[in-house]
Design brief:
about 120 residues, about 20% strand, binds zinc ion
Length: about 120
Amino acid sequence: MRNFTICTWDVIIIKKLRVVAVHHPKLCKIRNSLREIILHAYHDYDAYLQSIWLATTNSRERDRYRAHIEGLQESLNRSICKCMICQSIINDMVYIPRHKAWFCINCWKNNLIPFR
Ligand SMILES: [Zn+2]
């Protein structure tokens, strides 16, 4: 186990799990605000893509847009911006390599992650 402590946040690597924990309240607020900005940008772009998808009549083009929209959604779901289980955007996160996704520390501690 390696433990790196840098000022007010930690990156802890335990058996290939990566935990990112922020302790300072101001840094927590900045982190959460950045996550909100990213989520708003995603939702705006998703709405834009959905409108194009709905307006497209060519089935091949529709399939391409659908795949692109689903790919973006999958990327967001697996990102550090929100927990894949409880959708929390305010908690510290842990990366589970088996799932190739980030989950909040509460779901991890409560054993809500299958086959972790
Ligand atoms: Zn969670």
